[in-house]
Design brief:
- It catalyses: Fe-coproporphyrin III + 2 H(+) = coproporphyrin III + Fe(2+).
- Belongs to the ferrochelatase family.
- It is an enzyme of class 4 (lyase).
- It is a single chain.
- With about 300 residues, the protein is an alpha/beta fold.
- The chain has a domain at about 155-290: Rossmann fold.
- Helices cover about 50% and strands about 15% of the residues.
- The protein contains eleven helices and eight strands.
- It has helices at about 20-30, 40-65, 75-90, 105-115, 130-145, 155-175, 190, 195-210, 235-245, 265-280, 295-310, and strands at about 5-10, 90-100, 115-125, 150, 180-185, 220-225, 250-255, 285-290.
- Helix 10 (about 265-280) links the parallel strand 7 and strand 8 (about 285-290).
- The longest helix has 27 residues, at about 40-65.
- The relative contact order is 0.15.
Length: about 300
């Protein structure tokens, strides 16, 4: 008898932290029309002629800095999460796929359809935005028009409780001047065209403030990972860190709720690059709250969410 299937989808990663593999990955990622809205006739020559040749080797260096003996941190944590969810849902078939790179969404769904009567897809992005979730929806629907998609979960009470608990534990372990809640940024133009991402991140921040035993005046939100010359959502995390250092706030805790698994953005961009900028401008201690990764509590949350939505 065929089982129900659950597919967890994350962003993806190069196969290896080498320049050729990173270049191949970035080419797929930055050719997505949901990510880069510029007409391909204008964008592709720029991408192939300038961005990939200059960015791929630099990004490969960053990937090497955070690569583990088991591979890409994002892939490793996602695999472990899938294994824990599978243990909690023995009557289901639980698999993973990546928006870019491997395993591909189309290949994984094709294999699942052979043993699954119904497939539920959960993008591992708490907040909906065109540049991440919409691409997953497009690829899933192309592979299985009947698949059910849970397209966001940032407003779920259990998720907010879990995230707040993670933050509070980290805050109580140290002595900090500020908590910075840093979300992955998106171009302002996307929001102006109706993308709900900013509203969802602001709503999550408000809910976290209610749950945290931290004075509201010590909490700020920001956006990180800006790419390209166009304006993105502000305030930018790096500028915020500079401002905090100049104000004498030398010990800062940062949480990045957009990322459920530690990855290049949390391990390299925040813990290395942003930490260095913070220190160079008078900061002392920049500590990251670990992502939920493959925690048993997060696996249980996913299990409960999927079963409730069934």
């Amino acid at each position: 008898m065929k089982k129900n299937g659950l597919l967890l989808v994350n962003l993806g990663s190069p196969d290896t932290p080498t320049t050729p593999d990173v270049k191949r990955y970035l080419k797929e990622f930055l050719s997505d029309r949901n990510v880069i809205e510029m007409p391909p006739a204008l964008w592709q020559p720029l991408l192939r002629g300038i961005i990939l040749p200059t960015r791929a080797w630099r990004s490969a260096t960053f990937y090497r800095n955070c690569w583990t003996k088991d591979g890409s941190p994002l892939i490793v944590y996602t695999k472990r999460l899938v294994a824990k969810v599978q243990e909690l849902m023995p009557e289901w078939v639980v698999k993973m796929a990546m928006t870019y790179g491997k395993p591909k969404i189309s290949d994984t769904i094709a294999a699942m359809k052979k043993e699954c009567k119904n497939i539920t897809v959960l993008p591992l992005f708490p907040f909906f935005t065109k540049s991440t979730t919409q691409t997953i929806i497009d690829k899933v629907k192309a592979a299985d028009s009947e698949a059910k998609i849970i397209d966001r979960f940032s407003a779920e009470k259990d998720y907010l409780d879990l995230l707040a608990k993670q933050i509070q534990i980290a805050w109580d372990r140290g002595k900090y001047d500020k908590l910075l809640i840093s979300y992955h940024g998106i171009p302002t133009a996307m929001v102006n065209h109706g993308d709900p991402y900013r509203n969802e991140t602001e709503a999550a921040t408000a809910e976290l403030i209610k749950r945290l035993d931290i004075p509201e005046k010590q909490i700020k939100m920001a956006y990180q990972s800006k790419f390209g010359p166009m304006p993105w959502l502000k305030p930018y995390l790096r500028n915020t860190l500079l401002n905090e250092a100049q104000l004498g706030h030398r010990d800062v805790l940062v949480v990045a709720p957009s990322f459920v698994a530690d990855c290049l953005e949390t391990l390299e961009e925040d813990q290395v690059q942003n930490y260095q900028v913070f220190r160079e401008n008078g900061g002392n201690n920049l500590v990251m709250v670990p992502s939920l990764n493959d925690s048993p509590e997060f696996a249980q949350f996913i299990t409960n969410l999927v079963q409730r939505k069934e």
